[in-house]
Amino acid sequence: MLEPPLPGPGCALFLDFDGTLADIAAHPQAVRVASSVTPSLAALAAALGGALAVVSGRPIAEIDHFLAPLQLPAAGVHGAERRRADGAWQRLAAPALDTVLGSLQALCAAHPGLLLEEKSGAIALHYRQAPLLEGQCLAAMTQALQQLPDMALMRGKQVIELKPRAAGKDAAVRAFLAETPFQGRQPWFFGDDVTDEAAFEAVQALDGVAVKVGEGITRARHRVADPAAVHRWMEEALRKLAAAAETAKPTR
Length: 252
Ligand SMILES: O=P(O)(O)OC[C@H]1O[C@H](O[C@H]2O[C@H](CO)[C@@H](O)[C@H](O)[C@H]2O)[C@H](O)[C@@H](O)[C@@H]1O
Hints:
Elements: E1 11-15, H1 37-47, E2 52-55, H2 60-67, E3 74-76, E4 81-83, E5 89-91, H3 98-110, E6 115-119, E7 122-126, H4 134-146, E8 151-156, E9 159-164, H5 169-177, E10 186-191, H6 197-205, E11 209-213, E12 222-224, H7 227-248
Parallel strand pairs: 1-2, 1-10, 2-3, 10-11, 11-12
Antiparallel strand pairs: 3-4, 4-5, 6-7, 7-9, 8-9
Helix pairs in contact: 1-7, 3-4, 5-6
């Protein structure tokens, strides 16, 4: 699989968060973002005319927390919520999850290694600290799904999630691409997880560039090793975009 090329000024850049911008950590709140990342993102966004968005399974509020003080266009909860480049928000109606929360909370109370993450309209059951309970978690979430017909089950990195069926990172990318300043640009998507595969397919169908971060089977045609390699690519992309801007300046 190929190393990704560097982008031109006509690129629209979409970046996943966990496992792409930040290394996977033991706990969702234990994530650390390298100090160079936020300034690089801000500079890249400026060089691309604002056409840079974070597309994550996390709520946008958490992305803002980790990248503070930067607030980028973003899609959160796998696309169930979206903050456009003009600052306007779009949210899918949040399904009521009360009917299933009790049994999932009881499962986590019985097994302290499990972690239930309640998002607006979605739930993630983490078993990173109790990998032997994967089967039990899958059974519990499959049972919960039967009571939530508008939800879909999604596997991630040592997590099983229930998210609105209508939400997807592919749909979020297409929605950004219909708007200024993303419209008319070539889409690029970097992601590390199976939850990013639909977005990989979406950008490649539009003659864009999909980059898988890390190991694993993927439909993406490009790959980098880890978030540190993504950070290095961002720095090189910035240098190339700055040189292109310099060349494009009118001579006196
Ligand atoms: O779409 P992403 O930005 O990649 O978010 C996917 C999920 O990431 C988080 O969970 C994962 O990362 C945690 C921190 O590294 C890790 O502890 C966990 O095992 C991973 O599954 C987040 O907690 C989820 O809400 C996101 O959906």
